[in-house]
């Protein structure tokens, strides 16, 4: 425990950040399951409705997050995160009482807006509280929280829906945010290096540009963001269709939670492994690209299965989902490490928000494109196409990376 992945938890500030994230992530995954089950099963709506939810979730990350990120770097991060969590509780109440899709979309948008402020503040707080040599473990723990809640959240959400009704997960989500607030009150004051500079009229635009300029000047960071942005676009082509994939494979509404949990379980195992063996930090782009090649193959196999060419027991489809989760960690953990290690502390909020904006922009049109494609070529066709695209993305990235490395070696020689 004292030497591996859990090393950063000795740090009181990081311990508070991590504890709050665990309960915040749990709330988010209860939300994810509840909204999809309400839309697809309770209201009986189709692919377009699910796609609209995902698009509305993404818009604040593209527009509001980057514009507000300058203030994330300037404002006290502890109080900002606590305020964001209070607002999330308010908007979850709106989701609970939403009578139709349009009201639900309004509160999904408001909740995503607050999340687009909370996450850069959390990223910045991590950068200010964790020593550079512990960043791989800290980033892995953060990813571990997200992935563990992918197991607990959907499974718990399915159970809560079965016991207490379709909207009951929102109550548990609000409770999770309340616990996160209580934990954040124990967070020590974070010393930042960013001055307020509120009197300089040009400082806002200059500060905003600084984060974007840094992304394009840092070669490894730029490569990681481009690779993950394209990967996100491909993933979100079929992500909104995943509930319909589950239906086609014979999974019920409650069993859909188990399928998503299988992805989460694979992600947890992957994150634990990467946290224990951190040699990958010297070749993060290579690991991301290799994972892309393998996950593309897996998505292609699932797509062929949905087409009905062959049938497998549910346990084997869950094993495939587990493998996808494992590979997702091999892409997500290195990306998180590159983002933290290649960014100065004083612009962490701006850079993480700009990176999230670029990624979200790349995947914002994907759900609508996926829904349209599903109507013309079917859900299986979308999966097969996405699998082939993911495979070639990884292959091209590996080839490009190898050529770059050979060029560097020849210059050194």
Automatic annotation (TrEMBL):
**Coiled-coil positions:** none
Q: Which Pfam families match?
A: MFS_1
Tell me where in or outside the cell this protein is found: Cell membrane
Identify the Gene3D superfamilies for this entry: MFS general substrate transporter like domains (1.20.1250.20)
User: Which residue windows are transmembrane per the record?
Assistant: 21-43, 49-73, 85-110, 170-188, 223-244, 256-275, 287-310, 316-339, 351-373, 379-400
Domain of life of the organism encoding this protein: Bacteria
Q: What membrane topology is annotated for this entry?
A: Multi-pass membrane protein
Q: Which UniProt keywords apply?
A: Cell membrane, Membrane, Transmembrane, Transmembrane helix, Transport
Q: Tell me which residues make up the Major facilitator superfamily (MFS) profile domain.
A: 1-405
Cited PANTHER family: INTEGRAL MEMBRANE EFFLUX PROTEIN-RELATED (PTHR23513), MAJOR FACILITATOR SUPERFAMILY ASSOCIATED DOMAIN-CONTAINING PROTEIN (PTHR23513:SF6)
The protein in question is named MFS transporter
What broad taxonomic lineage does this protein's source fall under? Bacteria, Bacillati, Bacillota, Bacilli, Bacillales
């Amino acid at each position: 425990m004292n030497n591996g992945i859990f090393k950063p938890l000795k740090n009181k500030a990081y311990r508070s950040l991590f504890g709050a994230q665990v309960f915040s992530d749990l709330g988010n995954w209860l939300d994810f399951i509840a909204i999809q089950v309400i839309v697809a099963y309770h209201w009986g709506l189709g692919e377009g409705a699910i796609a609209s939810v995902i698009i509305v979730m993404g818009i604040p990350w593209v527009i509001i997050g980057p514009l507000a990120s300058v203030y994330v770097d300037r404002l006290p991060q502890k109080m900002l995160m606590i305020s964001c969590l209070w607002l999330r509780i308010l908007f979850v109440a709106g989701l609970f009482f939403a009578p139709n899709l349009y009201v639900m979309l309004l509160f999904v948008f408001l909740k995503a807006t607050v999340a687009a402020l909370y996450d850069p503040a959390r990223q910045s707080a991590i950068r200010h509280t964790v020593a550079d040599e512990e960043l791989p473990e800290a980033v892995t723990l953060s990813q571990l929280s997200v992935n563990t809640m992918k197991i607990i959240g959907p499974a718990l959400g399915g159970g809560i829906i079965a016991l207490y009704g379709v909207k009951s997960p929102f109550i548990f989500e609000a409770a999770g945010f309340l616990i996160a607030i209580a934990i954040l009150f124990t967070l020590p004051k974070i010393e930042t290096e960013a001055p307020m500079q509120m009197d300089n009229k040009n400082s806002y635009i200059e500060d905003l540009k600084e984060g974007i300029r840094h992304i394009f000047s840092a070669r490894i960071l730029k490569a990681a963001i481009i690779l993950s942005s394209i990967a996100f676009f491909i993933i979100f082509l079929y992500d909104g269709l995943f509930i319909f994939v589950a239906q086609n494979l014979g999974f019920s509404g409650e069993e859909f939670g188990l399928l998503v949990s299988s992805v989460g379980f694979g992600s947890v195992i992957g994150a634990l492994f990467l946290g224990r063996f951190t040699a990958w930090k010297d070749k993060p782009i290579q690991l991301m690209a290799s994972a892309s090649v393998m996950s593309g193959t897996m998505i292609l196999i699932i797509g062929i299965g949905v087409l009905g060419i062959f049938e497998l027991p549910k346990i084997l489809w869950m094993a495939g989902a587990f493998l996808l989760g494992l590979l997702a960690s091999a892409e997500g953990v290195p990306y998180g490490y590159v983002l933290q290690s290649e960014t100065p502390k004083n612009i962490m909020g701006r850079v993480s928000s700009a990176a999230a904006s670029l990624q979200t922009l790349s995947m914002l049109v994907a759900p609508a494109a996926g829904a349209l494609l599903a109507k013309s070529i079917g859900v299986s066709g979308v999966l097969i196409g996405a699998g082939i695209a993911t495979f070639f993305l990884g292959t091209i990235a590996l080839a490009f990376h190898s050529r770059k490395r050979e060029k560097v070696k020849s210059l050194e020689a």
